[in-house]
Amino acid sequence: METILQVNAVKKHYGPVQVLRQCTLEIQAGEIYGLLGINGAGKTSLMKLVLGLQKLDGGNIFVLGREIRDSPAYLAQVGSIIETPSFYEHLTAQALLTMHLAYLGREGDILEFPVSSATVELAAQAVGVIPARIAKTLSFLVEGGCVLVVAAGDAKIDNSKYKAIFHTKAKMLTPEQVSDFTGHTIGGVCPFANPEGVKTYLDVSLQRFGTVFPAAGSSNSAIELTCDELADYAHSLGWIDVCKGWQESISFPPSPPIGLVDKISEKDQV
Question: What is the DSSP code (8-state) at residue 98?
Answer without folding.
Answer: H
